[in-house]
Amino acid sequence: MPSEGGSYVSTAIVGTPGYIDPEYDKTSVPSKKTDIYSFGIVLLELISGRPAIIKITKESPCNIADWVHLVTAKGDIKMIVDPRLQGEFDPNSAQRAVETAMYCVPVSSIDRPTMNIVVKPNEDDKTFEPKNQHLTYFEVERITDNFQKELGRGASSIVYHGHLSNGTEVAVKKLSPSSILGSKQFKTEAQLLTRVHHKNLVSLFGYCDEGSNMVLIYEYMAKGNVKAYLSGKTEAVLSWEQRLQIAIDAAQALEYLHNGCNPPIIHRDIKTENILLNEKLQAKVADFGWSKSMPAEGGSYVLTAIVGTPGYLDPEYHRSSVPNEKTDVYSFGIVLLELISGRPAIIKITKENLCNITNWVHHIIAKGDIRMIVDPRLQGEFETNSARRTIETAMSCVSFSSTERPTMSDIVVELRECLKIAMAHERTNNLEEDHDSAGIEAAMTAEER
C-alpha cells in the first residue's frame, strides 16, 4: 500500500476468478478490503465445502456468495453447512460464521469490516453489528403474534413467546417504555451479545430499537430457569448428576467470559434465575444487563454503583465498589450451594430471622454431617465423595477474601472430576443391579426345572 499521503497507481488486475473483489475489478485499485472480500469467499468455502464458483448446470456457474444469499433467503442456514458434517455442528456457531463471511463480501468495500473485527469484534466498534439482527417493531409484532403469549415479567420488562419466519421458537424481551435504567441495561446486553458467542451463553437472534420500543430476541429455553426447579415450582427433581452438569455448563460460560474474551467480561448478576435450561437441560447463562468489561492492562477501574442481587453479592465488591472476575466466582459459589441443597440464597429460619446459605452450610459442616446439606428431595441418591468435593468447591468460591477464591478454570476442572466420580458410582450400581437381576432369574429358572 502507498505511504500516508501517497496515491496508488492503477495496474493490471490480478487474482483468481471467484475470489476477486468486484470493486477492485471495476476500479483496478486494491485496498485492505480487497483481501477481506477474498477471505469471505474462503470462509464460505470452509463452511459449505463448496468451491468459490459453483456449477449449478454446465452453462450456469454461480458465485458461492450468490448461492449463500439464495439459501439464506429460504431461512434454513443448516442447508449452507457442508453435508459431510452430518449435522455435527452448533447451529448458533454456524449462523455466526455465515454472517461473518457474508459481511466480508458486500459489493461496496465500505460495508466490509476490518480483519481485526473479523478475528475478534471489539466492544467499542459499532461497524460490526450483525445487520440481519436489527428488526423493525412491525417484525417483532409479527414474531410474537402481536405479543399474545407472555412467558414472564421482571421489574423493567415482559418476556413473550414468538416464532421466527423459519419456525424457530424465540423469547422476546420487551422493555417497559418508562424504564430509564432498563434502557441502559438493554443497550449493554444488545452490544455484548452481538460479539460474544459460547454454547453456554443464551444467543441473541435480534433486537429492535425504535424510539421507546426496545426489544431483545433470544433463543427459546424450553425448561425455564434453574430457580424454578430448585424452588419446587416444577414437579421434576433434578438428579445429582444433572445438577453437576448444570453447574459445569454455567461455569464454562463464566470461564469463557473471563478468559475467552478480550477484554475479560464480568457478568455481575450470576444467580439461579439467570441460568436457563433448554429442552435437553443444557444450561446457558442469560441477562447481561449489568455486565462490565474489565479495564485494559494498565488501565484503572472507574467506580460505579454496586449492582447485583442480595444473597449473591460478593462482600468484597460490596465494600470496595470495584468488581473483578472473583466477583462472579463468589456468586457462582452461592448458585452451586443452591444446586447442592435445593435451598435459596437467603434462607428463612423464621419470619424475622433470615440466614445466608453460606452461614447455614458452615453451621452444618461444623456438626460434621455433610449429607444434611444435600437436597432431601434426592432421597439419598447421590455419591457421598462427589457431594463432599462439590461442597468444598462451593465453599472455596465464597471465601470472604477474593484472593482465596479459585478461578473459573479451576472450578470447571474440579466440577468435572466431581461428575466423573458420581458417574462411576452410578455405573457400578447399575452393574450390581444387572448382576443381581441375572442371579434372581437364574434361581427362578432352576426352581421351575
UniProtKB/TrEMBL annotation:
Offer an example of a GO molecular function term for this protein.
ATP binding
Main subcellular localization, coarse class?
membrane
Which Gene3D superfamilies does the record associate with it? Answer: Phosphorylase Kinase, domain 1 (3.30.200.20), Transferase(Phosphotransferase) domain 1 (1.10.510.10)
Q: Which UniProt keywords apply?
A: ATP-binding, Kinase, Membrane, Nucleotide-binding, Phosphoprotein, Receptor, Serine/threonine-protein kinase, Transferase, Transmembrane, Transmembrane helix
An annotated GO cellular component: membrane
Q: Where in the cell is it found?
A: Membrane
- Coiled-coil-forming residues are none
The record, for InterPro entries, names: Kinase-like_dom_sf, Prot_kinase_dom, Protein_kinase_ATP_BS, Ser/Thr_kinase_AS
Would the keyword rRNA processing be found if you checked this record's keyword annotation?
no
Amino acids binding ATP: 174
Question: CDD domains given for it?
Answer: STKc_IRAK (cd14066)
Q: Which PROSITE patterns match?
A: PROTEIN_KINASE_ATP, PROTEIN_KINASE_DOM, PROTEIN_KINASE_ST
Boundaries of every Protein kinase domain copy? 1-128, 145-419
Bilayer disposition of the protein: Single-pass membrane protein
Tell me which PANTHER family the record gives. Answer: OS07G0107800 PROTEIN, OS07G0107800 PROTEIN-RELATED
* Family affiliation: Belongs to the protein kinase superfamily.
Q: What is this protein called?
A: Protein kinase domain-containing protein
* Species name: Vitis vinifera
